[in-house]
Every structure is written in C-alpha cells, then in structure tokens.
Amino acid sequence: MTKCIIRILVLSIILVPPIVKAQIKKIGVPFITNYNPKTYKAASENWDVLQDSKGMMFFANHFGIMQFDGVRWSIVTQPENKSMVRSLAIDKKDKMYVGAQGDFGYAIQLPNGQYQYTSLVKLLPESARNFGDVVHTVIRNNEVIFFSYEEIFIYKNNKIKVIKSNVKFDDFFEVNKEIYVLDNAKGLLQLKNNALTAITNSDQYAGMKIRKIFQTKNGLLLLSQKNGLFTFKDNQLKPFVTEADNVLKQNQISTGIQLSDGYFGIGTRQSGLIVIDGSGHLIQHINKQMGLQNDYVTNLKVDKEGNLWVTLKEGISLIQISSPLSRVLDTSNSETKIYCSQIYQDKLYIATDNGLFWMDWLSYKNGKHENANFQHVSGMSENVWNIGVFGSSLLAFEKNGIFEVSGNSAKLLAKTDGAWKGILVPNHPDLLIVGGYNGMYLLKKINNSWVYQNKIKGFEESSRVIETDKNGDFWIAHGYKGIYKIQFNKTFDAVSKVEFYNQKNGFPSSLFLNTFKIDNQILFGTTKGVYKQDSHSKKMIPEPVFKKYLGMENHIRLLKSDNQDNIWYVSGENTGKITKNPNGSFEVEELPFRKLRYLYVPGFENIQTTASGDVFFGTQDGLIHYNTIKNKQYQTKYKALISEVKCIFPKDSLLFSSRFDVLPNKTKEACEEISNVLSHSHNALHFSFSSLFYDEADATKYEYWLEGFEPKWSEYSLQTEKEYTNLPENEYVFHVRAKNIYDVVSEEAVFRFEVLPPWYRTIWAYILYLILYSVVIYFIIRYQKSLAERDRQQLILNQEKELLRSRAELNEQRLTLEQENMAIVRENLQTTINLKNAKVASNTVNLIHLNEILLSIKELIGQMDKKNDPNVNFSLLTKINKLIDHELQGDKHWNEFEEIFNQLHDNFMQRMKTTYPELTPRDMRLCAYLRMNFNTKEIAPLLGISVRGVEDTRYRIRKKLQLPSDANITEFILNF
Q1: Are strands 187-192 and 178-183 parallel, antiparallel or unpaired?
Q2: Domain containing 645 — which CATH number?
Q3: pLDDT value at residue 17
Q4: Which UniProt keywords apply (predicted)?
Q5: Which residues pair with 491 in a beta bridge?
Q6: Are the C-beta atoms of residues 609 and 562 closer than 8 Å to each other?
Q7: Ranges of the chain with pLDDT below 70
C-alpha cells in the first residue's frame, strides 16, 4: 500500500505542472516595462524573440536581428538581401538560424563579438528561390525547418529538401516534437520523413486559420484566428468555451504560448494579451489601457527568469508575470499618490492626493477587471491622509476635516484645520481621538453615528502619528521635535499631563521619530533602529529583537502587524516581513519587495493587510498588491557581459562589439585576425558592460576591476561604462560583476588584452639602441684615442717646452747663483782683503812705529857704546824703558788704528761705545782684536799684557756686555 501511494505521488509530481516562476497572478496587473522604437532605435515591427544560453535576448526586427543585453539595444546582423527578419531559432551551441523575407540562413558570433550571417539560399535550385516571408524556423533533432507560405525548406547536412504547396500554406506548428502544417486546400497535414501526409479528417481544418496548437492533458488545444479555441480528442474537434471568447473572436488571435503552470497566453491583433487557465477562466487581460504599449501581439516568449517578452507590431514589452507583486489598475488609472487603503463592505478604498476612490473588490479579485473601475467618492477632492473602520463606520481624514463615507459619497462630520488620523480610546469604544494639524479632536458615537464634540485643550502640536498603550496613555510622534506622552482628564476634553522625550532621553536623534504598536507594546522608529522605553529608568533603549533582525543602522519608517502575527516593516530603502517560527525564532523576508524601493510617498509609507492574505502597498505609482502564496525564485544565476570594448584613440577603434554597424565591411577572416594585443598608441580603452538580468534592469549595480592596473574591485554603482587612459605596457584582465535588485551577484565577465610598450621601448628599439650605443661608444673611443694622442703629442711638446724653460730657468738660476756666489765670494774676498789690508795697514803702522822705536833705541844703544859710561848707560837704559813704556801706554798709534778699523767695520768702535758706554779704551781694543778674529795669544802682546790678563779682560767685558755664561763673546762681537 505504501509503495502504491509513493508511486502515485511520484507520478503526480511528474505529471502535474509545477507552480514555478512562470505563473501569472490573477489579482492586479503585472509590472510592465515597455521598449518603444525610440528606445531601441530600430524598426517598430518585431516578429519573433529568443534567448541564447548566456541569457541574451534577440528579436526578429524589420531592420535585422536585434539584441538586448539588459542595458543596450543593437542590430547585430542582417540577411544578405537586407530584408526584414521574421523568425528565429537557436541550437545548443548558440548558432542562430534566421528566417527572413526571401532569404534564410544562420548567424554565428565571431571572436570579436560580431555576428556573421551566412545565407543558405545558394543551396537551393533556381526554381525554388522565389518565396516570400519565412515566418517559422524550427530546430528538430539534427535538422532545421524553414517555413514560408510557398515552400518548406528542410536543411540537413548542408543540403536542403524543398516541399512545395499546390496552393499556399497557412501556418506551421510544432506540437510535442511533431510537426503540423496547415494547408489552405488540404487542411491539417503532418510532416514525416520529409513528406506531408494528411491526418484523419484533415480537410475539416481547411480555412480555420489555426494560429497555435498546444498539447494538453485533454488532447490538443487549437487557437483559431477568428473562431476562438477548439479541442481535439479522440478524433473529435469541439469548441473550447472560455470566459474570453468574445474578446478572442472579435480581436483575432495572432499567437499563443503555453505557460508552465497550465495557463495559456494568447496574443491578439486588436486587444493585446489574454491569459486563461486550463479550464478557460480569464486570468488576465493586458492591453494598451492596462499598460501594454500596443495591442497587436506578434509573438510571446518566457525567459529564464520567468518574464514574458511580448513582441508587438510597434515595440516590445516585458511583463513580469513571475513577480508576486502587481499593480491594482483600472481603465481610468485616476489615482496618483496613495496615502492609505482599506477594504470595507467588499469595496476597496484608496486615499489619494486627489480625493477618495473605491472599486468593487470582489469583482476585481475574480478577474472581472473590465467591470471594476475606481470611482470617485463625492465630497472629497483634496489630500485624504487616512481612512479607517471604527465600529461599523468608515471614516476618512482629509485636509478639510473628518468625513464619514457611505458608498460613493462622504458626509462632513467636523470641519477642522486638517485631520490626520483617528484612534479609539481604550475601554471607551464610543470615543474617538482624531489627530489634527494643530492638536486633537474628540468624536463620540451617539445612536450608532459619530458626532463631533470639541477640540481637546492643552495640546497644540501636529498629531499625525498617534498610538495608545495598555495603560490608556497616548503617544504622539512629531517628526521634527520628539515624542509626546499624553494623559487626558476623565472627560477627554483636555490634556492633564504631557511628558516629552527626545535625544536627551536616549533616542539617537530627535528627528524623524515614529511610534508604533506591536504586540500591545509601544515601539519607536528612529533613524538608527527600533527603540522602546525601559520600564525602570524610563530611558529609551534599543529593542533587542528588532536590533538583531533589523540592525541599528537603518531608518525605521514603518512597523505594522497583520492578522497572522507577521510584522511588516519599512526600514531604510527596504520593505520586509518578519515571521515568527514555532520555535520562537524569527525569519526575515525582503527579496519579494525590492521593487518597492523609492516608490513610497516619503513620510507616508503605508501597508494594508487583510485576513485573506492580501497585502496592499500605497506608493507614488499607485496601489500595489502582494500575493503571499505566489512563489518566485530569486537566487537564479545570470551572467555579466562586456558589451563593447573600444580604443578611445584613434576614435572608436573597436576591439569587441556585437553591433552590426561598427564593422560592416569586415570579412570573417579579417574579423578573426583582430587581436587583443594593442600598440602603445591604443592605450586608452572604453569598456561598456551589462548584465543579462532583465527584472528591474535599471536597478542592477556593477563593480569592475582592471587587473594589472588597479589593486582591487571598485565599489558597486549603476555605472555601465568605464574608461582607462594612459595605460602603461602590461598584460591586463578587465573583470566585471553585476548585483541585481535581489542582491544576487552575477557570474564574472572578463576581457584580456595586452598593451605593448611604445616603439622606443620595444625589443627592436633596444637592439637599435644597443647598435647605436655600440657605434657611439666606438666613435667615442676613437675620438678619445685621437684626443689622447693629440694630448700626448701636446704633452710631449709642452714637456719639451717646459724642459727648455726649466733648463733656461736653471741656467738663469745657476747664473744668478753663480753671480750671487761670485758676489759673496767677491764680498768675502773683499772682506778678507779688507781685513788683510787692515792687518797689513795695522802691522805696517806698527812696523813703522816699531822701526821708529827701534831706531830710537838703536841711537840710545849707540850712545851707550860710544861713551861707555855706566851712569850714562844707566840713564840711557832708563830712557829706553820709559820710551818703551810710553809706547805701550800711548794712544797715538791706536787712534790711527781705530780710524782705519771703523772704516773697515762699519763704525764698529763707535757703535760699541754708543751701545756699551761702560767699556774702557783697553776693552774697546780687545773687542777690536776679537772682531778681527785674533786669539788670546795674539792679543796679549798687542795689549802688552799676559794671556792671563787677556782672559781677565775678556771676563770683565762679558759682564759689561751682560752676556750669559754659555754665550761666546767672540761670536757676539763678530755679529754685532
């Protein structure tokens, strides 16, 4: 039994269509992004769409194959005859097969990014080349089928099989890997073994103009152009009645798509897109009034993210059918900024800046959008700030006062200077406190109707944000001042006590404070997280649970609980839901609400929940609905893409690009030769990049890194281009990554290139430099040698000149020295001669005088001999002695000597007398003899004294000259 149950479950999982990202919501209109011809800059008509393995989108456009990479549109190639492209198909290797007008072939991407188209028409015989539009291209197994109204072409092994029609074919279908062809004359045919064979009762399909066939669990579903839908089962063709029959039959079906959740998308010529379920119930009708830019749908394609691409006669639309968010729209779209929403008595009310509106919510929820329009509630046409159900009444709070709403009209309850919000008094369900622009007002319920009582005294501040706690106290948040805690008197007509809290009481700031009531507890939203009041210190402290899950860095703009005890919040730019798990932990969900970033009215963020699970977000872009049952995969992989690389100089010199117009004349061989090795003159590059993620593509951020030039990745930004200039020679790798609105980071894209050094730093330049250097060195050496030789010769010449000059100088010095020596010798000789002369003169004088004395003595001795008388002799001897004594003591001869001596010795005697006046004449004589360099023995007889007497005289002279004992008196006399 258990095995049987398991088998049944497995089969049910396999056979039942899974609820995946392609499921489309019934409530509201999915988000639509329109791309018009001005945006993609090509022809308005688009006929087909496909996505390659990387995620790139391609469109069959009147101008050729058009590509969209999430940021940029471009025509990548054209058929050889420049005709419009009508159909596309792609194989596992991203080889695109193209059906055009009068042409078909394939396109492949070259290494430089270009797509090259190759026509296959040349394989046809001349008789088969006259055909029109190839409206279908299908790849099946190892063959490609091109379908035109005149002929069918089967391409296999570089050969083409041609199947012609006797009349004309009407359409072509691929159903569960089987090929069917609708022939205008023969009806529905099946293509097998390269031949067309009629199916059972095939002729009943002739003229039906079938536009699509789907395989379903109830057989085949046929979409006819003008007669609606049919089912084919057990060889029976029956009409398939749907809730959209009138629209389908009146507006002509053009195409269709089977969605993976069992829904069918049907494109029409005059009324846009219709979505039905397998039972024929209308799920969506999206036309021009609902946001589609054109009502003529030519083709449909679901991409890897579950988005539905709609090609139109004019433009392209992207419908985000996989999103759990949708816009609540009607044909008038009269609402603008939404400040609040409320479901009351099965009606949906929205408070806007243009008044209050309502619609039949049950009809809208059941898919009857065309009969569900927002209607204006009369009586209010200005800003309606809030609406709420109090008891059994719906009250609206407007710029001009307080209104009670009934149906499509409103009654003024109290004209006040602006009313923000109403709140019931705890334990007093008949009392309503209304916060106004300048204080508060009291309303009381009398006879089941609210009646204005009075303005409450004692408080005049703006009271837009107001809540009550379990003690009955009122908390009012003033966005620019702080938080007020209010207590009323017993009659609630006056304020009895006011407590004020701001940054001084623990808040991170006094600005942008909010107050909320969660689980019967008063919490405060600040610019730095959620706070609460400490029951003991009365200080404001961070709330621990919200601190853990929301952090302390974001501005908490809204907290609100729903009927399932979930907590909805707006924190910073993010909207989210906190769900409490059975184990007490919490789970935070933010990804489904990333689309709401920047859509709220600042300061008036509002989320409305219902018991049935509907969630409404009031935004600047209308009312947005969220379905909690709807699942979408957010963590899907996708790729970043380098769209184009070009050198800035010379201008727009492209290295990589898929744009068809940039290298229109390049052959395949030339394109493949393009290298990423760049000369130094091309060292300024411009990179364009994108990501192949199309859900809110404008919100995708990018980071990049030029490896070899930058140390790390850049910060994430919305920038999709980057330039680098003056890159030095090196090998580089440009990296780029994307991060989508759901914070999923893409696969990395890289572009490798090399910048060569400038010509003057290449290897050939260095070789040339080496050769030039060697030549220069050679000539320098030669020049140096010549200079050295010349310097050597000059040096030799200079040395010879110097030698001659030195010899001349030496000769001159020698002559001078000889002359000086001769002069000295002559002077010395003269001095010697003078001394000798002096001696000679002195000796001569002395000799003469001595001769005279001897003659006198001779005479006296002669007289002694003649007289021979002793007395006479004695007398004569006495005279002789006196004569001798007189001569010895006389100065006559000395004076003559002194005069001659002074002439010879520069007045020596005069100078000695002047310098040393103590010297006696005898002393002067001794000095004179010493000057003449006589020794003691020679001096003694000249002075007539003994040698001992000479020594004594020398000693006396030394003392008079004051000479030290070790001084030589002779040297002193000679040098004086």
Answers
A1: antiparallel
A2: 2.60.40.10
A3: 34
A4: Coiled coil, Membrane, Phosphoprotein, Transmembrane, Transmembrane helix
A5: none
A6: yes
A7: 1-23, 331-335, 369-371, 630, 652, 662-675, 828-873, 876-877, 880-881, 883-894, 896
Together in a domain, 365 and 513: yes
Residue 827, domain member (yes or no) = yes
* Spatial distance between the Cα atoms of 889 and 506, rounded to a whole number of angstroms: 140
Q: Report the candidate in 233, 236, 253 with the shortest Cα–Cα distance to residue 244.
A: 253
- What's residue 139's pLDDT? 95
Residues facing 577 on adjacent strands: 568, 589
| Token output for 36 | 């018009």
How many domains would you assign to the chain? 5
Would you state the pLDDT for residue 7?
Answer: 36
The two beta strands, 195-198 and 187-192, are: antiparallel
Burial of 785 (0-12, 13-18, 19+ CB in 10 A): exposed
Angle between helices 763-867 and 892-904 (to 10 degrees): 170
The token pair that represents 439 in the structure block: 């204080």
**pLDDT score at 59:** 97
Is residue 405 helix, strand or coil?
A: strand
How many C-alpha atoms does 671 have within 13 Å on its Cβ side? 20
Cβ distance 69 to 692 under 8 Å?
yes
Q: What are phi and psi of 113, to 5 degrees?
A: 95, -15
Of 201, 123, 212, 20, the residue nearest 631 (C-alpha): 20
Confidence at residue 413, expressed as pLDDT on a 0 to 100 scale: 95
Alpha carbons 425 and 221: distance in angstroms, whole number = 61
CATH number of the domain encompassing residue 353: 2.130.10.10
Between β-strands 749-755 and 677-678, what pairing exists: parallel, antiparallel or unpaired? parallel
Tell me, yes or no, whether 508 and 539 share the same domain. yes
DSSP element (H, E) containing 106: strand 104-109
Burial of 150 (0-12, 13-18, 19+ CB in 10 A): middle
The helix (run of H) or strand (run of E) holding residue 929 is helix 921-931
Residue 440 and residue 510 in one domain:
yes
DSSP 863: H
- Are both 875 and 910 inside the same structural domain? no
Q: Find the domain containing 421 and state its range.
A: 338-565
The verdict on 350 and 318 lying in the same domain is no
Q: Can you read off the two tokens belonging to residue 867?
A: 């007289």
What is the residue type of 535? S
Instruction: Give the model's pLDDT for residue 234.
Output: 86
